[in-house]
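Pipeline run #58 for the internal structure catalog. This entry was flagged by the ingest filter as a single-chain record with no existing model, so it goes straight to prediction. Upstream metadata was stripped on purpose; only the residue string is passed forward. Reviewer on rotation: M.T. Logging verbosity set to normal.
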Amino acid sequence: MKQNGQRVTIDQVAKEAGVSTATVSRVLAGIGSVNATMAAEVRRVASTLGYRPFGAARDLASGHHRSIGVVVPDLGNPYFYDIISSAQAAAAKDGYRMLIADSGGDPATELSMCEDLLSQAGGLIVQSSRMDVTGLKSLVAHNSPVVLINRVEYGVDLPTVGVDNFSAMLEICHHLTSLGHRKAVYLAGPASSWQNQERWRAIEQARMMGLEATALSAEPTIEGGYDATDAVLAEGPTAIIAFNDLVASGVLARLRERGLRVPEDMSVTGFDDIVFAKFTHPALTTAVTPRAALGKQAWKILRARLNGYAVPEVPLVKAEVVIRDSTAPPPAH
């Protein structure tokens, strides 16, 4: 089953048998036409190496219904929905269905849900994981296919697809400083969120551009942004950098109630470019994250691992900053 502590992959079987990985897949799945002598050699090598396909891959030829688990922090967030929708559509084309669970952003609940789903499904996709490194390593110990979306943790042997949050947020900060902003408040997301950590890291680096920023906590929702706005205004910034578009939308609503004009009196930025970001009043300056591409890529990697293929490291995907009507030069004093 393992060589030197590592799971034997279909690539290793193919190399040892001197055939293609496609041939190994056909032989072990019992489909297609393969020379009897070659098929026998593939089976011999697979047995010698201790290769065993993951459960879902073993069902490939049988027609059994196959399931994949998906865990997200908040099903009410359009960002997560868009990724799930894309992954689900891709998986359905391959005959898989998805079992979806909402952890509510709680690390302990997330880990429990992941473990439950791994007992029911052939593999797992975890979006924006909030659990700690110990929790992630416990998923590795299950020896089942798991893919993370928007969580990079060095030293944890789980494939990841994600967005380059750091570069996009740094570009947002550069946009603000080019307009003349020197004081901002960042309405931060969950402390356990890798995306939040990367965005704040970029904002801190923006001090080199002359942007001084403080961070205030907010729930990553419209209500969270609305509720935190008064505390933000007490800091006296000329720009508010929101963790995501939902938070920014709440900020816009509260600023209107306070009689402040955006962007004339206050600039506001979001992140993610969810479906209504261009329809807020004013339209949000934000970072466009390729959600459909993330979902498809996550499924592509999980599908490969379900079939025993080794998966190369995937670089972070670029997020494009789009300048709309919610940012302008700060008011003259």
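catalog note: Residues 78-93 form the longest helix (16 residues).
catalog note: Residues 60-65 have pLDDT under 50 and may be disordered.
status: ready for reviewer M.T.
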